[in-house]
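Re: glutathione structure - here you go.
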Amino acid sequence: MWRLYQFPLCPFSRKVRLLLGEKGVAYDLIRESPWEGQDAFLDLNPAGQTPVMVEEEKGVVLIDSQAICEYFEETVEKLPLINGSAAGRAEVRRLTAWADQIFYRDVVAPLLEERMKKRLVHRAPPDGGRLREAMRNANTHMDYMDYLLDHRSWLAGGTMSLADIAVAAQLSVADYLGGIDWAGHEPVKRWYSALKSRPSFRPLLSERMEVIMPPDYYEKPDF
Amino acid sequence: MWRLYQFPLCPFSRKVRLLLGEKGVAYDLIRESPWEGQDAFLDLNPAGQTPVMVEEEKGVVLIDSQAICEYFEETVEKLPLINGSAAGRAEVRRLTAWADQIFYRDVVAPLLEERMKKRLVHRAPPDGGRLREAMRNANTHMDYMDYLLDHRSWLAGGTMSLADIAVAAQLSVADYLGGIDWAGHEPVKRWYSALKSRPSFRPLLSERMEVIMPPDYYEKPDF
Ligand SMILES: N[C@@H](CCC(=O)N[C@@H](CS)C(=O)NCC(=O)O)C(=O)O
Ligand SMILES: N[C@@H](CCC(=O)N[C@@H](CS)C(=O)NCC(=O)O)C(=O)O
C-alpha cells in the first residue's frame, strides 16, 4: 500500500491526492510537519519537503509532487490527466508549473506563513500588509484564470487535466486561509464549484488543520 | 525554426539548451531580460519568465523549462534523457526539481541577485553576507552530490539524464558568478568535467554577460 507523507494544508500534497483520487489509487496518510525538520523525514527527503510517497514492498520512494504525478500518469492508465497532443501536454505542464510556482509564491506561501506558521510555530500575529498583498495577488491571478475559462472549458483546454487539479489544490488552501474574495470571478467560481463536487475533492475539504478554521462556505460546492 | 527567448545567465534556459544540444534540435537565440518586464514579452508569457520557445510556423509556444524539456523528450526520439523504469524516471524528475527549485533558491537566485541584478539594474554593491551564505549553501549541496556520485555514475543512476543537465545548468551559472569553491569535491568535479567536454556545453561556456566576467578557469574542462 502507498503511504503519503503530508499535512492537511500542503497544496502540493493536495495536488497528489486529487490525482490519486481521480485515478482510483489507494493510499494511507502519514502526518508530517516539514517545518519541524525531523531527522527521520530528512533521511527520507533531503529537501525536507512534503509530499513524499512510499511503497515499502516495492522499495519505491517518490519525491516532488510533479515527479509523483508523472509517475502515476505513466503507470495508471485510468483517466489520463496530462493529456492531448504534445503541445497540449506542454500547456497542461505550463499551467501546472504556474500553479505550483507562481500562484504558490504570490498567494499561498505568504498565506501559509502569516496564517498558519506564525500561529502554530512562531506564536506571532500575522503581518496585515503581507496578507493584503497576497489577496491582491490572488485577485490578479484569478483575473487571468477568468480569461482562460472564457475561452476554454477547463484551464488547459477542452478536458479536465492536471492543470485544473494543481490550480484547485493551491486555490483550496488559499480559500481555507481566508485569502480568496470570490466576488467578480464568475468563471473561476463555476469551474471551482464543478471540481469541488467531484468525489476526489470531498475528503480534502472535510479535513481541518488544528486550531485554524476555514470560512463557513469553504466546504460548500455552492458558495 | 524554433526560437528560444533567454539571457546568457538564465540557468533554466541553459537546461533547455543542453537538452536541445544533446538531442540535435536547431534553434535561434533571442535575447530577453525578464526583469525589464517588456509588454511584448508579458504577452508571450504572463508569468514574465525565461525560457520561452516559439515555433511560429507550427503556432506552438512552450513555457517553463520542464514543460519544454518534456515536450522535446516526447517528440524527439534521439537520446532519451528522462530514462529508465517508471521509478527511475521519477528519480530523474526528483533531482531535476531539486536543481530547479532547491539549488536555484539557495545558491543561484541569491548569486544572480547580488552579482548580476545589483550590478546591471540597481547599480548597488552586493551584500557580502548573502554571497557568503549562497556559497555555504553551494558547499552543502555539493556534499550531497558527492554522496550521490559515490554510489552512481551519473546523478540519477547509471546513465546520463535530464537530472545531470539541470544540475549542471545551475552549477555553471553559480560558477560563472564566482560562487563555487571546488576544493574537496572530487566526485562533483570529475562529473562536471565530463559534462563540460560535451559539444552541447561548449557554446554556453563561451558566452559572456555584458560587464560581468567569469573566473579564469570557468571554461576549462580541466580546472
Ligand atoms: N516542488 C515541491 C514543493 C513542495 C513544498 O514546497 N512543500 C512545502 C509544504 S507545502 C514544504 O515542505 N516546505 C518546507 C520547506 O521548503 O522547507 C513539490 O511540488 O512537491
Ligand atoms: N519554472 C521556470 C522558472 C524560470 C525562471 O525563474 N526564470 C527567471 C530567469 S533565470 C526569470 O525569468 N525570472 C523573472 C521573474 O521571475 O520575474 C522554468 O523552469 O522555466
